[in-house]
Amino acid sequence: MLGTTDLHDDLGHRGSGISESSPPLPHLTPTQMEVLRCVRSGLLNKQIAHQLGIAEATVKVHMTAVMRKLNVRNRTQAAIAAGQLRLVA
After folding, report:
1. How many CB atoms sit inside 10 A of residue 76's CB?
2. For residue range 67-86, what is the model confidence (pLDDT) as tens digits?
3. What is the rounded distance in angstroms from the CA atom of residue 75 to the CA atom of residue 21?
């Protein structure tokens, strides 16, 4: 997990005057992290469900929670945000 300073540097905010009190990294559950990893790998919900041994509807619930926590509107934005925040490899 990155510290606040690392996050700012990674997102190109070095020296931009952003205070150390910026919002913390979102807390994702282990399953949400795994779903997000699969999304970053380009898997569809059905494929993610099969890989994780859960229902496709459960994948959708996890993706909705992930998108809300990352404050994004779609899975592509979630994958990009995860990469920028280094939430998943």
Report:
1. 10
2. 999 999 999 999 999 999 88
3. 28
Burial 35-74 (b: 16+ CB within 10 A, else e): bbbbbbeebebeebbeebebeeebbeebbebbbebbebee
Q: Distance between CA atoms of 42 and 15, rounded to whole angstroms?
A: 35
pTM: 0.71
Rounded CA-CA distance 39/77 in Å is: 11
Instruction: Report yes or no: 83 and 40 within 8 Å, Cβ to Cβ.
Output: yes
CB 35 within 8 A of CB 88: no
Q: Say which amino acid occupies 87.
A: L
* 45/21 Cα distance (integer angstroms): 36
Tokens of 33: 């992290």
Nearest to 48 by CA among 69, 27, 66: 66
